[in-house]
Amino acid sequence: MAETLEFNDIYQEVKGSMNDGRLRLSRQGIIFKNSKTGKVDNIQAGELTEGIWRRVALGHGLKLLTKNGHVYKYDGFRESEFEKLSDFFKTHYRLELMEKDLCVKGWNWGTVKFGGQLLSFDIGDQPVFEIPLSNVSQCTTGKNEVTLEFHQNDDAEVSLMEVRFYVPPTQEDGVDPVEAFAQNVLSKADVIQATGDAICIFRELQCLTPRGRYDIRIYPTFLHLHGKTFDYKIPYTTVLRLFLLPHKDQRQMFFVISLDPPIKQGQTRYHFLILLFSKDEDISLTLNMNEEEVEKRFEGRLTKNMSGSLYEMVSRVMKALVNRKITVPGNFQGHSGAQCITCSYKASSGLLYPLERGFIYVHKPPVHIRFDEISFVNFARGTTTTRSFDFEIETKQGTQYTFSSIEREEYGKLFDFVNAKKLNIKNRGLKEGMNPSYDDYADSDEDQHDAYLERMKEEGKIREENANDSSDDSGEETDESFNPGEEEEDVAEEFDSNASASSSSNEGDSDRDEKKRKQLKKAKMAKERKSRKKPMEVKKGKDPNAPKRPMSAYMLWLNASREKIKSDHPGISITDLSKKAGEIWKGMSKEKKEEWDRKAEDARREYEKAMKEYEGGRGESSKRDKSKKKKKAKVKMEKKSTPSRSSSSKSASRQLSESFKSKEFVSSDESSSGENKSKKKRRRSEDSEEEELASTPPSSEDSASGSDE
Q: Does the keyword Metal-binding feature in the UniProt annotation (predicted)?
């Protein structure tokens, strides 16, 4: 016989909701761990008094009763597992696992039995339904009638809010059956009544969620938050965890109370109660109990008179009453020496605390993620700047949390912490001998390849290259033309009055060749720059008259099914709707998908047909535009062909000047001094030069004086 039995995907019924988790049966007892909250229920083997096997909506279920009256229900078993469980109970717990089915006759009259914390409505020996009395929020009586009201269940789409029982009158004297029924319910119901005095009161405490200043009254079984607008009563049984976290400024402290189920205000749910304290605030506290009662109830954990920091007193009292450990940050230290990391989650900035067994983010909205529910973590590049990075966590249920805008200096510390906790890092890559599974995950090593760091370096190189290219483009003309030695020579040649007039024609030719080479090089480079810029400048806009591209089979199906998905899941968000649609499409049969594939193919053919018509129409319009442009060009050419008077006069003057040129003028042009003069003349404007030549043709005296120079 096996020492232990383990079952996955078992559902525990708690206050009307079904919590998924894992059930483990051992010789010592039964342990159930909730997958959502991580809460562990431990039933000792010696406490079990009865075990019942029965058929339920989710297959088969197990109902367990204990000596102190508690009832535990677990559903999701297969019929074939009965024999295995029955033998285990006989061997280790010495209990007979009885088969007892529910009555399905549909009758609405029967007998009510109160057993432990259950109200059972029976017909004969078979139960019809059972009501956990801890789920009752109010009990009212009338004439021969009892009304039970229930706490609202946030996890269920439909919640049972009220049940009425008709209690027939009896002939017994002195006993009212209606009042007896109500007293049995109220003795076990979760009806919070502030009877008696509070053990202690903390005045005007700053609360971040729900926001405001509240007086906290500590009662033996519940916590009462009294504010100016709202009041909250929190039973200690709903407190899941306690956290005491130091603020990054080392002057304040957060005290976080995790709640399940959460406190409600309208449609808002508060899963965490967050109190903010200053370290400098002190308090002297006196409990409203005598010393004997304090010693008997708290066993030395509290004393009648206490004094110290306000946050220490609150946390100490809460720890004693709730009987749960207080979680504090472990040995993690960030770049600045603080035990937390500044980051942003969704739209708000806050603090992320790496703990020994999870992460907690405060404060808006508060998030607590346990290591055992993390599938993998991911270090991603920051979306806005390279000075920060994002830390992503994905749970085994598929929920993703992204903590952004974390300073780059925190990367090494956080990476080492995650590695030491053996969490799966998505973007680290696989190394030799590394198993990607959670259990065999290797420890951090200084020589290991850091994928995030390498990617950041690569992006830095690309940015530097782009910056160099842009600086080369902007400075090309300046860099090429800036040559101090050459520039000085050119200036001396053209504009210096002491320039050598007796330089040989070979030197002049070499200078001209060098200038031509420079000009050609500049022109070539300018052409290359223009060709590089062309693709950016020429950008065609999208024609609004063009036919729209056809949708895929999945998109056609999604548009047709969107409203149905919304009606099946009221209040679903856009992202969740997309995920749900993807799941439905993935699980759809091949035959159903073929129908949408055919529709997508028909849409594609219609699109191709419409495109042909559109392109044909566009071709005709472009031809008409070209013909119009040609007509306009012809009209312009005709206008240009008619010569103006000014142009005719200029041509006439040119002919005169050419005819009046003498031999001396021609010979002076060929001399070296004439060559220098011709350079100077080329600097003048063409119009003035033509007028001078036309009006006064050069004489022999002018040419002689030019040669004497």
A: no
